[in-house]
Design a protein that fits this description.
By secondary structure, the protein is mainly α. It contains 14 helices and three strands. The chain has one domain (about 5-130, about 160-380). Helices cover about 65% and strands about 5% of the residues. The longest helix is centred in the last third of the chain and has 33 residues, at about 285-315. The protein starts with a helix and ends in an 8-residue tail after the last helix.
Length: about 400
């Protein structure tokens, strides 16, 4: 087990719990969220997150002890099961909150999108880890006398045929996430999948073309979806609607600016007192900046950077391609989540609804994140073994 990686994860989780307690104290005490009944208990969010953190650490340990090759065989049922759960969201078992239908309520609530992010990485890594063997195999013989044969041969030569199954799977998942709607989930699924595809050696021009297609699709969705258009407008000019869509970003920037160099001190945030919405969730980093200042915020960013760099180091030294691709997918997804969240909180990017790993409130997300860490640690256990070609 890689101890530096484990230590960074546990340190970030511990700091995240402390900052969540500080950020959520006022919201829980005044019972501000109509969808959550805190009963005036200021420790409501903290205690809930602490329970999930303990469960997540236990799950992380269990996953790290399992031979990661076991997940190769489970990749297909895991993907099928997670897609099935996404479909169940649109049945009476689904629950709507803040205009989005993302939760399944089966005695307890969770977001299937958190599971599908991992399942996509496992499936892609399991299939693409065999890509070298498939390339070495004799190419399929096409009948050049027919149009179908010539088109098939051309598609195979440019690498299109091998991408079609992955593209179909992604389109199904993205469609289900779009209908929720869940833009942040769409972005994170794409980031993990794209990282695995890139690391497996898929030809570069497909990423250039795919990036252009995704950009065009996002632009279309923004212009056709009312809430996305409003978010984009509030990002471009947050001061134009301070009582509406620009309010949250404006209050976030006030919190960041109030922190200065050294911060107001742990627990001394003013913006968390009914000024900044989602202060314990997507915008918890704004409270970090306010209470710990620029120096404290930079230290948190450095810890995340060290974690991500260490993750890629483990990917480079993994025993086989499956382990390497799995780490690349999980690590890139984590990196994208950190960069996008901090970018949104600081106003560098439009609001996407992406949470900050190990810091933002959310039981399902925290447990899944720690389980993903368990996958990486499982791969790291076998790094000392002779590397397979």
């Amino acid at each position: 087990m890689d101890l530096p990686y484990l230590a960074l994860v546990l340190l970030l989780t511990a700091i995240g719990l402390v900052m969540l307690l500080s950020a959520s104290y006022a919201s829980a005490y005044y019972d501000l969220d109509p969808s959550v009944k805190t009963g005036g208990n200021p420790y409501y969010y903290f205690l809930g997150q602490l329970k999930f953190a303990v469960a997540g650490v236990v799950g992380m340990y269990i996953v790290s002890k399992i031979d990661y090759q076991w997940w190769r065989g489970l990749s297909v049922p895991a993907l099928a099961g997670s897609i099935f759960l996404l479909i169940l969201v649109f049945t009476p078992l689904g629950r709507t909150s803040n205009g989005a239908r993302r939760w399944l309520d089966i005695g307890f609530s969770f977001q299937p999108s958190e599971l599908v992010k991992v399942a996509v990485i496992l499936f892609f890594a399991a299939r693409l880890s065999k890509r070298k063997d498939q390339i070495k195999a004799p190419p399929k013989k096409w009948n050049r006398r027919t149009l179908r044969g010539r088109m098939g041969e051309f598609a195979e030569n440019i690498g299109l045929l091998e991408l079609i199954p992955y593209a179909v799977i992604l389109l199904i998942i993205l469609f289900l996430l779009y209908k929720q709607p869940h833009m942040s989930g769409m972005i994170l699924v794409c980031s993990g999948a794209a990282a695995v595809l890139f690391a497996s050696g898929i030809r570069l021009y497909w990423f250039v073309g795919g990036g252009a297609a995704v950009g065009a699709a996002l632009l279309f969705l923004i212009t056709q979806t009312e809430y996305m258009t409003a978010r984009m407008q509030s990002w471009l000019n947050p001061g134009s609607d301070l009582r509406g869509d620009g309010y949250q970003l404006w209050q976030s920037q006030i919190a960041i600016g109030s922190g200065g160099l050294l911060g107001t001190g742990l627990g001394n945030s003013r913006q968390k007192y009914m000024f900044l919405p989602e202060e314990h969730n997507d915008f918890v980093f704004a409270i970090v900046c306010e209470e710990l200042g620029l120096i404290g915020a930079c230290l948190i960013i450095v810890l995340f950077a060290l974690l991500i760099i260490r993750g890629y180091w483990l990917a480079l030294h993994a025993r086989d391609r499956f382990g390497s691709l799995m780490i690349v997918g999980v690590n890139t997804q984590l990196a994208a989540q950190v960069i996008l969240n901090i970018g949104v909180v600081t106003g560098a990017l439009p609001t996407t609804g992406i949470s900050l790993p190990f810091f933002s409130y959310g039981g399902t997300a925290l447990v899944v994140q720690l389980a993903e860490v368990g996958l990486i640690l499982a791969v790291s256990r076998q790094i000392v073994a002779p590397k397979e070609e």
